[in-house]
Amino acid sequence: MGANLSNMENAHKSSNTSSHILTFHSTAKWKAHFDASKEVNKLMVIDFTATWCGPCKQMDPVIRDFAAKYTNVEFIKIDVDELMGVSQEFQVQAMPTFILVKKGKVVDKVVGAKREELQKLIEKHLNV
C-alpha cells in the first residue's frame, strides 16, 4: 500500500499546479487550515476518499475539472484511512463523500460518485 500512496501523492502534486486541490496528511495541519477558513466566505469542497475506493477514483478527474473551472472554490482531498478522526468529525460513512463548507459550517453534502449533483450544489453555494 505504501507504494500506491506515494504514487497517489505524486499524482496530486503534479495536478495541483493547474487545479488547486489541497491534500492533507496531518490532522494538525488540517485543523489549522480549517480554522483559518472560518474567517473567509469562500466555498470549500472536501472530498473524503480512500485509495481502495473505485468510485473515488472515477471522481478524481471530475474533481480536477471542477477545481480548474471553479477557481474561487477550494477543493480539499482527505483520505479517510489516513485522517480517520477528521472523517469521523464530519460523520463520513461512505466513499466518496463530498462536504461543502462555508465559514466553518457544513452547507451541503453529496454521498457517492454523483457528478451532476455535486456540480449543482457547488453552483448553488458559490455566490451565497
UniProtKB/TrEMBL annotation:
InterPro entries tied to this protein: Thioredoxin-like_sf, Thioredoxin_CS, Thioredoxin_domain, Thioredoxin_H-type-like
Protein origin, superkingdom: Eukaryota
Pfam family, one: Thioredoxin
Keyword set, alphabetical order: Disulfide bond, Electron transport, Redox-active center, Transport
Limits of the Thioredoxin domain: 1-127
CDD domains reported for this sequence: TRX_family
Ranges that cross the membrane: none
Matching PROSITE patterns: THIOREDOXIN_1 (PS00194), THIOREDOXIN_2 (PS51352)
PANTHER family attached to this UniProt entry: THIOREDOXIN (PTHR10438:SF463)
Name of the protein described by the UniProt record: Thioredoxin domain-containing protein
Lineage start: Eukaryota, Viridiplantae, Streptophyta, Embryophyta, Tracheophyta
